[in-house]
Amino acid sequence: MNKSLSIYLDILRFGAALAVFIGHSRGFILPSIPGFAASHALEAVAIFFVLSGFVIQYVLLEKDKTWKSYVVARLSRIYSVVPVALLATFVVDKIGSHVNPGYYETVPFYSEASFLSLSGALAFVNELWFAHGVFGSNEAYWSLGFEVPYYVLAGLLTFLPRRRALPAACVFALILGPKIMLYSAIWFLGAATYRMVSSPRFSLSWPAGILLFLFSILLYVLIRFGLNDLKQGMYAWTGVERTLLSAIYFFCVGIAVAINILAFSRIVRAIDLSMKSIESPIRWLAGATFTIYLTHEPLLIAFRALSNGVPPSPATGLAGMIAIFCLCLVLAELGERRKNLYRNWISRLLIHIQDIAGLGGRWKSPAP
To answer: Is residue 215 pLDDT above 80, yes or no?
Structure first.
């Protein structure tokens, strides 16, 4: 993958995480954030889905050529962050609900963490069919109940023999239910975008690429502010017609993102657009996006609870946002930035399990 394009994808990924963080910050601790700047959290998840499909298609075609390396890579990506996120949620929920239990009663999606909710979260079955399971105050975790099944679907379609791949994917789709499968179109749009980007057939001059890039931004604005009434949370099922209209809305957002990525890939192909000067900070920030996304909401709610549930002043709210953002970066050091370490641990564990089971072959850690 072109390095400049890779850096740009990291910019999009960090920007999407920041959009969710800002949106939830407005809802919990800083209501004075302008709506136009803090109303893109749901759209950001669609951006994540496109990026996820794009990257998974890339690794399947270019890096993880065996199902074993694919499994190790996906497990290490997920479980380098999930335990940290769930433990952080449990701890801050306990502290916040102990100090101010009344505020947690006003949070509509909050439910005290239990073994059942923990099991569902760890197995990513929290969104099957019409379910919407929340672990403690971490409602943002819902998207993993979509994304991880998409990893499995992609693996089934890629690594199973052709005559078995589609039937197996169909059976798995029945297990997942209509909600997850309806929004899978956005994820597979990302996968198709990678195939278009990597194809030499479609070429554009850099002026045409810039025009297409600008068009994608305009398209997003038109969708966001022109069709906004169609959307609802992807985790919600409110009947076939209403949910289908919402899925169409988010798919249109995905199309705008796909066009944006495609246009940028053609710009950097047509001109020598070096992004080396910003590579290090962008890579560093992008290396914490998963953690920011999966830990910020419980921290925001706990901050509000510890301030006795009273909406803080703009100065206090801004200070809280900065402190929570920095704490998310610290948590990333415990998990996400140690992904290679987790990859080695998971690979060794799978080798040990395989040896106990007496199976042939060896698991191998994929290249970092």
So the answer is: yes
